[in-house]
UniProtKB/TrEMBL annotation:
Gene3D superfamilies: HAD superfamily/HAD-like, Putative phosphatase, domain 2. InterPro entries: HAD-like_hydrolase_sf, HAD-like_sf, HAD-SF_hydro_IA, HAD_2, HAD_sf, PGP-like_dom2. This is Haloacid dehalogenase superfamily, subfamily IA, variant 3 with third motif having DD or ED/haloacid dehalogenase superfamily, subfamily IA, variant 1 with third motif having Dx(3-4)D or Dx(3-4)E. It comes from the Bacteria. It holds the Pfam family HAD_2. GO terms for cellular component: cytosol. GO terms for molecular function: phosphoglycolate phosphatase activity. One of its GO terms (biological process) is DNA repair. It comes from Klenkia taihuensis.
Length: 231
């Protein structure tokens, strides 16, 4: 009835971490730049930034095709790990990141963090966000063979909660790759603009709504389709 609030079944929130909750995209782009350059390949940083959000298992081929992947893929990923490690101490949560996690849980939603980062990086992010008591589960690169834009990571995130692939869930991300993965997994995607992609690109990929920061999404949470209640 109009004016009454009807309780909806709690949904599942699958949140990306790198670039969505933690301000890390430019650090990753710089680490990839240094990794490629150390191997004799100079790739413009802007091109690398456009690929952040895509998993490292796919990024090298996206930069230079199958030839570059076959020639330098494993070495580039190994060098990237070495280059990004010293930068982790410079990372900070994006505005309102932890508040978003708290708001999601307070509204009765299940919460899982879907990261394709290495296990030690994910541990650092969990500590940075003080999120171990908020997230029920989280993923790392060890959990899947194909990362975003493949949907595997999102499906694995649901499996970590013991949920089926078609469980009602939403994704929060920052890149077109998050949105594409969400679409393939059958989940709506809400996006923060910290990935540096244009609104037109994100909407064309299928983003439901766009917000500047996690804090802005938190402020609007009760008006979204996964608020937990609707009028």
């Amino acid at each position: 009835m109009s004016g009454h609030r009807v309780r909806m079944a709690p949904r599942i929130a699958v949140l990306d971490v790198d670039g969505t909750l933690v301000d890390s995209n430019y650090h990753h782009a710089l680490a990839w730049y240094r990794a490629f350059r150390s191997l004799g390949e100079t790739v413009p940083v802007w091109r690398l930034h456009r690929l952040i959000g895509m998993g490292g298992d796919q990024l090298v081929a996206a930069v230079g095709g199958d030839e570059l992947e076959e020639r330098l893929g494993d070495a580039a990923r190994e060098r990237w790990e070495e280059e990004v490690q010293p930068l982790l101490g410079e990372l900070a949560p994006l505005p309102g990141a932890r508040d978003l996690l708290v708001a999601v849980r307070e509204r009765g939603h299940r919460l899982v963090l879907a990261s394709s980062g290495k296990a030690d990086q994910v541990d650092h992010y969990l500590d940075l966000l003080d999120a171990r008591d908020l997230a029920e589960a989280w993923t790392t690169s060890d959990d899947v063979e194909a990362s975003k834009p493949a949907p595997d990571l999102l499906r694995t995130a649901l499996a970590k909660l013991g949920e089926p692939e078609d469980a009602p869930a939403v994704v929060v991300g920052d890149s077109v790759y998050d949105v594409e993965a969400a679409k393939r997994a059958g989940m709506p995607a809400y996006v923060v603009r910290s990935g540096g992609f244009g609104d037109d690109e994100l909407r064309a990929a299928g983003a439901v709504e766009l917000y500047d920061t996690p804090a802005d999404l938190t402020a609007a949470l009760d008006s979204t389709r996964w608020a937990g209640e609707q009028r």
